[in-house]
């Protein structure tokens, strides 16, 4: 059915739509307006009813009935996020693709029990068809997270001018930001930031369908598909055999603190980061692991990016369940960050929630929380 609808969309400019039935309907021209900058198409149709003429803002009215149309009419569920269909990508991929809007994303960042909030986050549109979402969780001072917040987007933009593969774009951007931060510290008049580092989890969304995530450290990206949590990142910790082996090959060592947390050289609880230059020779690297997925808006409800202040107190499915009960992403972001504090998180708690086509489809009154959660602080320093 989606292919039929798309074919109709492609030829609807300047056409006339008629419907025969018990009540005589007047033929009405269907016009469309296209915004070349945002590359999406919206439709407005005049509807005639027995009570008189009224203006409809619905994107499609396939049967001229005047009833609002939801994404479910095209095999995609959406009765709350009212966004236009992106016509060129929909034709290219052969299915309706709703425009993912920055204005609908929800963000929250709480300081928790820490003296300072060293988390940073950012959402922006970096090209006409690419959206950028990022969280950075600093440690040893805010300098590395501040630097990434300020410059990561710029490096990605510059690399996009020469490279279309988004996984390569993110890999190059992470490495170049790390090198630029090192140069920045060498030019600093004092030693501030020499031991600073940060996690980095960045998501690029092209044409509202191609999602690519890159990460170093233990900030997470998760996709809610069919109501289930699908993790898009794997934490870089010494508990991973491949990460531990690299540290040991590079001359580093692993120790465990009093809470049973493994640390690189007795200092850092992650094996990849931006910054932490005193540990670079012992195998701590800034090269991200990347993952690419094509969204299925009929099944995919939202994307979350979270720092470990949330991840250490709530698992991915718990986060998914709580968000699925929320009315909108802004409410969801605030509720998750608050929930992490209520569950005993002492760390900064930051989350970004990006809604997709199936937002609201898997809403459930069920919540299954773990009563065996850990209340241990998620500090990175031994």
TrEMBL record:
SUPFAM superfamilies: PP2C-like (SSF81606). Residues 362-382 are annotated as: Disordered. Its cofactor is Mn(2+). One of its GO terms (molecular function) is metal ion binding. InterPro entries: PP2C (IPR015655), PP2C_BS (IPR000222), PPM-type-like_dom_sf (IPR036457), PPM-type_phosphatase-like_dom (IPR001932). Residues 104-356 form the PPM-type phosphatase domain. Its EC number is 3.1.3.16. It holds the Pfam family PP2C. It is found in: Mitochondrion matrix. Keywords: Hydrolase, Manganese, Metal-binding, Mitochondrion, Protein phosphatase, Transit peptide. Residues 366-382 have a biased composition (Low complexity). Signal peptide: none annotated. It comes from the Eukaryota. One of its GO terms (cellular component) is mitochondrial matrix. Belongs to the PP2C family. This is protein-serine/threonine phosphatase. It comes from Mastacembelus armatus (zig-zag eel).
């Amino acid at each position: 059915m989606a292919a039929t609808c798309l074919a109709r969309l492609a030829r609807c400019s300047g056409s006339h739509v008629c419907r025969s039935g018990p009540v005589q309907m007047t033929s009405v021209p269907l016009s469309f307006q296209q915004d070349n900058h945002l590359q999406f198409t919206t439709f407005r149709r005049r509807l005639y009813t027995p009570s008189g003429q009224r203006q409809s803002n619905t994107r499609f009215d396939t049967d001229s009935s005047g009833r609002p149309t939801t994404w479910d009419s095209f095999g995609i569920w959406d009765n709350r996020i009212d966004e236009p269909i992106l016509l060129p990508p929909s034709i290219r991929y052969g299915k309706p693709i709703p425009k993912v809007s920055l204005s609908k994303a929800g963000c929250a960042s709480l300081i928790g029990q820490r003296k300072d909030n060293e988390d940073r986050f950012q959402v922006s549109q970096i090209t006409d068809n690419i959206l950028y979402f990022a969280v950075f969780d600093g440690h040893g001072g805010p300098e590395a997270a501040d630097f990434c917040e300020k410059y990561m987007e710029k490096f990605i933009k510059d690399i996009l001018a020469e490279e279309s593969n988004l996984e390569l774009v993110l890999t190059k951007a992470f490495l170049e930001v790390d090198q630029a931060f090192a140069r920045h510290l060498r030019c600093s008049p004092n030693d501030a930031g020499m031991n600073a580092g940060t996690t980095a989890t960045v998501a690029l969304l092209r044409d509202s369908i191609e999602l690519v995530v890159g990460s170093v450290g233990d900030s997470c990206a998760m996709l809610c598909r069919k109501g289930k949590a699908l993790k898009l990142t794997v934490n870089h910790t010494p508990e991973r055999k491949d990460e531990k082996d690299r540290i040991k090959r590079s001359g580093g060592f692993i120790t465990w603190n009093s809470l049973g947390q493994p640390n690189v050289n007795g200092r850092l609880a992650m094996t990849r980061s931006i910054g932490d230059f005193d540990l670079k020779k012992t195998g701590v690297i800034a090269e991200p692991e990347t993952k690419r997925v094509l969204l299925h808006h009929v099944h995919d409800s939202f994307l979350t990016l979270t720092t470990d202040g949330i991840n250490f107190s709530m698992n991915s499915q718990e986060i998914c369940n709580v968000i699925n009960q929320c009315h909108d992403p802004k409410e969801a972001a605030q509720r998750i960050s608050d929930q992490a504090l209520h569950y005993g998180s002492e760390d900064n708690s930051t989350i970004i929630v990006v809604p997709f086509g199936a937002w609201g489809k898997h809403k459930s009154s069920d919540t299954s929380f773990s009563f065996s959660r850990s209340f241990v602080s998620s500090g990175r320093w031994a």
